Amino acid sequence: MEKTIKTIGLIGGMSWESTVPYYQIINETISKELGGFHSAKIILYSVDFAEIEHYQSEDNWVDAGNTLGCAARVLQQAGADFIVLCTNTMHKVARQMCNYLSIPLLHIADVTANELNYHHIKKVGLLGTKYTMTQDFYKKKLAKAGVETIVPDAIDIEIVNDVIFNELCKGVVSPAAKQKFLRIIERLQAAGAEGIVLGCTEIGMLIQQKDVKLPVFDTTRIHAERAAMKALGM
User: Fold this and answer.
1) Which of 149, 200, 219, 220 is catalytic?
2) Which residue of 37, 181, 219, 230 has the lowest C-beta tally within 10 Å?
3) Is the pLDDT assigned to residue 1 strictly greater than 70?
């Protein structure tokens, strides 16, 4: 009897650079689990990131949430069984988005917290956009799972944020940026971090496990793999 595969509704484009690995990882996971010619059932709604970034910079999270909520509802109406938002930062409006839905949204911080618990990590260094690092919407999810979060100092927060928006979101991966991130990770380790959460879906383009002594938790991979398993009812 053929296994029923649920349909994943992906909201991408924030940036499109990090949406590509979601599609790839989800399909690779489905193929690995089921074999043969199996692949994922995916409906993708890709937003214009310029619109979302404008809302971010204006601190206009209400309109950002409404825009993404409407996108999620389109995916639901198109037949998605659950929603995957392919970005860390915009999970700030996840609760608002759920007002538009009668299907689940797979929260990236929840699946990341589960992964940290599985590896018995109690204190992590969080890298992401300035919104993710300085606001509580993400850290509260980890804290609820018993994980303490530390972030870089103010100067390093600006460095990380600048690299994300001015390089990674534009497909630029530079050795200079990598060295900056590695130095910041070293400082987080010195402050007691037991692992590093790549809390921006683009950072995996720059930093991999082979670059760092501490365990690295790439939220893009964690989220995408969990989405695939959820689609399989696992």
Assistant:
1) 200
2) 37
3) no
89 with 133, same domain?
Answer: no
Using alpha carbons, select from 43, 26, 29 the residue that is nearest to residue 80: 43
Structural domain contains residue 89: yes
Chain segment 90-139, per-residue pLDDT in tens: 999 999 999 999 999 999 999 999 999 999 999 999 999 999 999 999 99
pLDDT in tens, 39-76: 999 999 999 999 999 999 999 999 999 999 999 999 99
Cis amide bond preceding 15, omega within 30: yes
Over residues 203-218, mean pLDDT: 96
* Helix or strand holding residue 38 (H, E): none
Contact (Cβ atoms closer than 8 angstroms) between residue 40 and residue 26: yes
Q: Is 132 a known active-site residue?
A: no
Calpha distance 204→62 (Å, rounded): 28
List phi, psi (to 5°) of 207.
-120, 130
Active site residue 169: no
Query: Which domain, by its residues, includes 38?
Result: 7-106+222-231
Bridge partners (DSSP) listed for residue 43: 9
Among 19, 67, 87, 219, the active-site one is 87
- Look at the chain and report how many structural domains it folds into: 2
